Amino acid sequence: MSSQKLKIAACQMKVVPGHPDINTKKIITCIREAKENGDDIIIFPEMAIPGYLLSDEWENEAFLVDCLSYNEDIVHASGDIMVVWGNVDIDKNHPGEDGRIRRFNTAFVAQNGEMIGKFYKTLHPDYREFDDDRYFYSARKLAQDEKIPIKDFLQPLQTEINGKHRKIGITLCEDMWSQDYSISPIDLILENGAEFIINISCSPWTWRKNNKRHQVVREHLKNHPVPFIYVNNIGIQNNGKNIFLFEGNTTFYHPDGSLYKIAKSYEECSLRGSIFSEEKEVHENPLLSKKIDHEELLQGLLYGIKNFFKSIKAEKVVIGLSGGVDSSLSAYLLAKALGPDRVFGVNMPSQYNSEITKDIARKLAEKLGIYYAIIPIQEAYDFTEKQLESTQFESLDGSEDKINLELDTLDKENIQARDRGGRVLAGIASALNAVFVNNGNKSETAIGYATLYGDINGALAPIADLYKNEIYSLCRHINEIEEKPIFPKKLFEIPPSAELSAEQNIEEGKGDPLYFPYHDKLFRAFIEFRLDPEDILEMYIDGSLLEKLKIEEGVIETYFENNEKLILDLEDKWRKFKISYFKRIQAPPIIAVSRRAFGFDLRESQNGVHFTRRYQKLKKRLLKID
Amino acid sequence: MSSQKLKIAACQMKVVPGHPDINTKKIITCIREAKENGDDIIIFPEMAIPGYLLSDEWENEAFLVDCLSYNEDIVHASGDIMVVWGNVDIDKNHPGEDGRIRRFNTAFVAQNGEMIGKFYKTLHPDYREFDDDRYFYSARKLAQDEKIPIKDFLQPLQTEINGKHRKIGITLCEDMWSQDYSISPIDLILENGAEFIINISCSPWTWRKNNKRHQVVREHLKNHPVPFIYVNNIGIQNNGKNIFLFEGNTTFYHPDGSLYKIAKSYEECSLRGSIFSEEKEVHENPLLSKKIDHEELLQGLLYGIKNFFKSIKAEKVVIGLSGGVDSSLSAYLLAKALGPDRVFGVNMPSQYNSEITKDIARKLAEKLGIYYAIIPIQEAYDFTEKQLESTQFESLDGSEDKINLELDTLDKENIQARDRGGRVLAGIASALNAVFVNNGNKSETAIGYATLYGDINGALAPIADLYKNEIYSLCRHINEIEEKPIFPKKLFEIPPSAELSAEQNIEEGKGDPLYFPYHDKLFRAFIEFRLDPEDILEMYIDGSLLEKLKIEEGVIETYFENNEKLILDLEDKWRKFKISYFKRIQAPPIIAVSRRAFGFDLRESQNGVHFTRRYQKLKKRLLKID
């Protein structure tokens, strides 16, 4: 009892959303191990029992009661170790504001076979994939209802560990990300005497978020230097339209905010450390670099693909291989994540497909060692063209009016795309008891440059959160890290093309109607920065466009010979971005890796197009119209 | 000036979401008319300028500033009439909790060319289609930040009208629906001396909601009898996955809560009434009956279809006519809403389609006077079958392993469905520059009894919020109200069937594997009541199942010979309900008419299936397993 030291196990577990039985079983196993190891405290992530992204399953009361019942198992298992874990709590005496049972996102604490505390989440994120106020009642609302100042409400847990009285600040996820809120739960609980902070989280990976978190923690500890333990889960969770990656990155911080221990990404483990000890181990501050970004991105995509197919119990996957860069990257990821013997590549040529791309498709399949077949679509296409063009509608209103169908170029292109996606790929996947994937990228998705019921089809869109230039860039990275290059040089040289008509003949250098060096940046401004055409024009006029959107010098001049052309394109792309949402409504789930993914991360309505009054003014000024 | 009377115009305008220019133009016109009419006050709905269901467009700051700029036009137009309207307000000095600009759902008030007040919404709904806390900062949070008790915060507007000082309680939508909240803004503002209440709303139609509202108002006025004016918009608004109907039902209430005036549903108008007058006109309390429910449902669906196609600028619509009840109802609704000359019916027989249904399809098209064509799919189907069955995959891993494709019955059924939806209907719609519809019903949608990229395709699912029995029931209602019956008797006699194989031969009385009199009620329990299989078993055991789910006597016995069969089916349907979400992710927008529609009204995750511990216990008890 002489030591003040506390031995802590931070359990970076893989949480399976919606399956409290599986999660609790794992928790109990980890508690047993921690006891054997002589740990004083074991900590599990936020919502470790139910999972977090459950959508409206939070309204299923029987499920909630079921989740809650697992608390007893944990309390029972606790013994002399203190256990902190996330679960949902309910209040049967007060309704939630949705008229259903009131729910709380809660950190429970058990010790010596008893429940000794529970703490409700104070700050509720309601942006991107987060909907905490939809599902939970916050400590903030409770304090207001009980007319208690929030500072008085946020008290540390007081308990005895190894004969010593302790004050422990227990918080949940967003409680530490308080910069945009009017209160800071971490600061308040520290002012109320917490000797160390536990933050249990269910926090998805996004670009450079962990580095941001290290800063945030340092900021909190500046005036109150105490140990800080951040416990996050691994796994994937989804809201249907998006799949989010949880990499863990469970971290112990020293009182000065420096890093003590960090768990490996995507690895299930109990990270162990001691606080109030002489231990001075310091973990290096993680670096930031494009290379590390690529590594993290690749690791995340592979983890997401592997776990998504596992979660839907899909053993085999079918993929259309066009010989273009998107499907090539997609095939690589599938083969790497699932193993080549589970991947079935299909090349589906029509008269418009070049020998170049057919050759790339075959060679890529060989390099990956996957299954491969060629299924031409020309004959089926010709039949459909003939059948439709010979179709006549008769009006049955007595007028004897007749209408014949005529197909234009776009109609014909779309027939090919639907033949591939809706007839061939879906038919093969069905026959193999497999699923198939969508190979779309974010640039195409942004303006609906894809055919609904054609190439938009698929059970998963693994790379739809990557802009075209990011696709190329990731392919180059893969070529560098693989023993032998996977993607042939030719792939980087041919123009991106759908090859659906003579107008898209890559051998004549023709391809997709997008200027990726410019449009990728423009789309990111729309999607991730939430900018309006008004903002784009404003920046263009004041000369800050290149810098703010990180567009390379000379790019604008390359594509637009004058202001009028730039404005025409801007309006065209904004219009397509808005209108093409009708396609995204019916698009498959996307693995979210950016700061804003299409799907249920970026929520949209079919409301057409609007240009602001200020936009109209700026346009007139630029075009010198009075 | 002797009269105390106030003449009020309640403007039930059609709000076009995302188009502040269009909405403001209408507002200005109505203000002009009200001035000519000598009104004292004119009131517009909640979010009359921007619209309400804008999804993440609320993050577009240029759009917000644009919306706000239209306030000036209204203030300028106000003159000596007092104007109350809904718009978004922003606070550039404080961030929203999403780190973007802080926004408020606001009621603005102008008079004599000046802005004289603004009131923020206090209660924020975050259920079903509502996401107020995602988008707006509430008066409640503001009061907590400013450390002001909420009652002190909610003060009436004080102003002079016709030389008399007035205290007016101005509230927004949910502020009156406070039964599940810990505070009641209406009651507090009445306690603070409001002489009458204005509630501006953007409140979608749902089953019997208006009657419920009349009760709620009476309850509020019980202790504080004052005039109450409820102003709601008409139109449709959407969140992509769902289309919501706004019928208006703008209402003046007498101080005793009785009805004074009610605007007609879906009609744009300025409803005029006088308060503090001798006017004793009483509007009858609306009746409740199944017949009225049918009328409202039909009116809503027609309004929704008409306005949806208008909003997406679709002139023509293509519909597959199978001769079954779902497509028949769908075709009727389209012809009625859009006019028969805009509807193109297509019958797409294979070898499995009976003469009976082909005949029904043709006769229905004749009755409706729409365009019609027959496009057989057998030849295309046979080609696909042959092509797939002759396909061989070779493994390119060096093993020379080969895999041939084999099609089972289900594979073959799905090929037919995809041929119809993905090849024929999509091809025709494309050639006609039209869209096509999905004819699925809610019962099928609940368990994914439909083919993805086949009959699930479409730009709109007009009847996917109606269970199979509601489809029949609405068809009967239509037959009653139309001069001559639309739907032939035969349609009600044949079993519902997909007619995709010999196993679904209606001439042998075979059809879909669903017991609609039972399953419709079971699905409603899952979807709308949010019940779990545990609850179903619990009710079954305690004998309350029939009553609680409104299942008819004898139905259970008809379909299930013993408890084991019932349990098998219950687990099968729960599993299918959960798993089939993967199809709904890619399904088209649904017009919401129930208390919970699939789409973004009921939010789901792909999390597989879970049975609670209590369910397992009840099951064992029922099957007498130890």
From TrEMBL, chains A, B:
Binding residue positions for L-glutamine: Y127, S203, K209
PROSITE patterns assigned to the protein according to its UniProt record, in alphabetical order: CN_HYDROLASE
Amino acids binding ATP: G320, L321, S322, G323, G324, V325, D326, S327
Statement: the UniProt record of this protein carries the keyword Ligase: yes
Its EC number(s): 6.3.5.1
Catalyzed chemical reaction(s): deamido-NAD(+) + L-glutamine + ATP + H2O = L-glutamate + AMP + diphosphate + NAD(+) + H(+)
CN hydrolase domain residues: 6-277
Binding site for deamido-NAD(+): N414, E444, K583
Pathway: Cofactor biosynthesis; NAD(+) biosynthesis; NAD(+) from deamido-NAD(+) (L-Gln route): step 1/1
Record's function text: Catalyzes the ATP-dependent amidation of deamido-NAD to form NAD. Uses L-glutamine as a nitrogen source.
PANTHER family listed in its UniProt record: GLUTAMINE-DEPENDENT NAD(+) SYNTHETASE, NH 3 /GLUTAMINE-DEPENDENT NAD + SYNTHETASE
Name of this protein: Glutamine-dependent NAD(+) synthetase
Gene: nadE
